[in-house]
């Protein structure tokens, strides 16, 4: 499909809601990594039944596009599982020039081990400045949250961070890990977090709020903590925390 098209630098490819065999994914990956000038890639394979074997074929192709600076990969509603996520995480480790990453993994059954694989991948991206990570409905739990944060703390150049963490059984402890790492990202200007339905409980945002106070360089803050059983007192605490950001955009739901 892409033969003799080595001049292409930016590619958008939407293949959502198709059913691919492992050999088809491997062929696609081979075609893409033949584009030696490619620096930006947007690939939508959501609802494509990408599982462990297909993810391995995809990983083998992606990790060879070593000049990529911008990657958008949508695997929403693909049953990757922990091993499939490990394959994708390994590919990320090879793409060390990436500055802009959009990774969509909603409802991929990656679990806590998948969260750790994401973290291992992020930890190898020293130039990353913009990250959008959609990992809702994956049951990563506290251990998975800790794994993701292991990667986040290794990318200090982050300016923009957007996380969808909903329905992952994080609890207040898991959310606290994110608060701790965010406080260490001194270049962060924009922070958006969706942590709905994570069983945070009455005191769910206290630790997170205390850490957030240290993020003095934020220009925009957007937080969503719906359906977590948070008490009115805790909601007020989080509202008070945001007051230190004077003349800046704040959204709290």
TrEMBL record:
Entry-linked Pfam families: LRR_6
Of the GO CC terms on this record, one is: perinuclear region of cytoplasm
Sample GO molecular function, one term: GTPase activator activity
Set out the biological process GO terms recorded for this chain's protein. Answer: nucleocytoplasmic transport
Key words of the record: GTPase activation, Leucine-rich repeat, Repeat
Identify this protein by name.
Answer: Kinase domain protein
What organism is listed for this UniProt entry? Answer: Pseudocohnilembus persalinus
């Amino acid at each position: 499909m892409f033969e003799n098209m080595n001049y292409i630098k930016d590619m958008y490819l939407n293949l959502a809601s198709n059913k691919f065999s492992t050999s088809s994914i491997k062929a696609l990956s081979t075609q893409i990594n033949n584009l030696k000038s490619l620096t930006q890639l947007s690939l939508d394979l959501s609802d494509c039944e990408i599982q462990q074997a297909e993810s391995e074929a995809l990983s083998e192709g992606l990790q060879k596009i070593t000049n990529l600076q911008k990657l958008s990969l949508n695997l929403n509603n693909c049953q990757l599982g922990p091993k499939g996520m490990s394959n994708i995480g390994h590919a990320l480790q090879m793409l060390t020039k990436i500055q802009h990453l959009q990774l969509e993994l909603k409802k991929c059954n990656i679990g806590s081990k998948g969260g750790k694989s994401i973290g291992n991948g992020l930890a190898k991206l020293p130039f990353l400045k913009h990250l959008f990570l959609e990992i809702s409905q994956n049951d990563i739990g506290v251990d998975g949250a800790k794994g993701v944060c292991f990667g986040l703390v290794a990318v200090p150049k982050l300016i923009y961070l957007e996380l969808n963490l909903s329905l992952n059984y994080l609890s207040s402890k898991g959310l606290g890990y994110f608060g701790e790492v965010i406080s260490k990202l001194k270049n962060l200007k924009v922070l958006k977090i969706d942590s709905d339905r994570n069983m945070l409980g009455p005191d769910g945002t206290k630790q997170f709020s205390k850490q957030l106070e240290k993020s003095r360089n934020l220009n925009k803050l957007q937080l969503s903590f719906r359906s977590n059983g948070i008490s009115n007192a805790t909601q007020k605490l989080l509202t008070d925390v945001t007051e230190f950001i004077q003349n800046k955009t704040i959204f709290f739901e």
